[in-house]
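Shift notes (night). Ran AFG1-like ATPase while the centrifuge was going.
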Amino acid sequence: MAVLSLIQRLLGKKTDVKSASPIPAFFAHKAKQQGYTLSAGQTQAIAALARQTQQLLAGKPTRSLYLHGPVGRGKSWLLDGFFQALPIAEKQRVHFHAFFARLHRGMFQHREHDDALGVTLDELLAGCRVLCFDEFHVHDIGDAMLISRLFKTLFQRGMLVLVTSNYAPEGLLPNPLYHERFKPVIDLIAARMDVLEVSSPEDFRSLPQAHAEQRFSAGQYVWPGTVAQREALGLPATHCPAQTLKVGNRQWVCRSHQAPTIAFTFNDLCEQLTAVMDYLLLCQDFDHWIIDGLPPLAQCPIAVQQRFINLVDVLYDQDKRLTLIGQQPLAHALQGQAIDLARTASRLQQLQTVCPQQAPHPVS
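Came back to this:
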């Protein structure tokens, strides 16, 4: 197999890849099965994953890996494949938002302890030898300080950490007011991790074969949300009366909630003080999310844009079905100033678009 042979050459001719690491053969088979042609960056990353797997299985020290690149270039695909193929049980695959929500909650519970972080990690990562950390980004100085402590602790524990990010390490926490304070973490990443760029001329999420892999891809973007469209799709009316819903210790407003479906307006979710932990709680009970009234994001405050970005991240990672309703083409609605909107746009491209006198088709 051509891909496998190339990875073997990158690993070195003396390495018996098939017997020592299942990673190259797994990805060669997965790419062929899904009709993907691996990019040079993906191939280099697979070879690095194979090297560290060999070290891990041989009981030798490993170097962690930091994969970065533009949205839709296969970083999460690599992480998920590595996690699936790695032949050990002591591993975890976590998402940035979900992990940090649990980390903050645990540290609050153990706040009286001298090492609240260590005790929380003992609970969250008990017995874990490999941590796959997807969609890593830093925009908040509070998270940045916690990340510094977290990474030092993970490396001290000898854990193999695989990180994917849209940002090269030096691009993390881009706010110039705080970036220098994060420099020690960037230096730590450079010292303890192999940093690899995963790039490609195309966004893999736009390919037809990507649409069959997630329930998220079965969702729809509906515009302009006419009465006829709503009736045909069985969607709530535009002016559904508000209903109350308890989320954690707070009362929320939604339009309807009958499992497995919950419906909100954009205002209900993003123009209120909602948070990632709230979305994660609701994901435990609801698989189909309807969000009505997506405005042009460029007209919204940055904080509102960021809540929408976080919400889409959670729904995508939790593989929830999303029906999003707006008044204009999606590409127009998603123009804004928030840094991570490119990732949101790439993910929402997987929805099927429904517009007047047109059958559903992938958003282009």
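Residues 73 and 203 are 6 Å apart (CA to CA). The longest strand covers residues 288-294.
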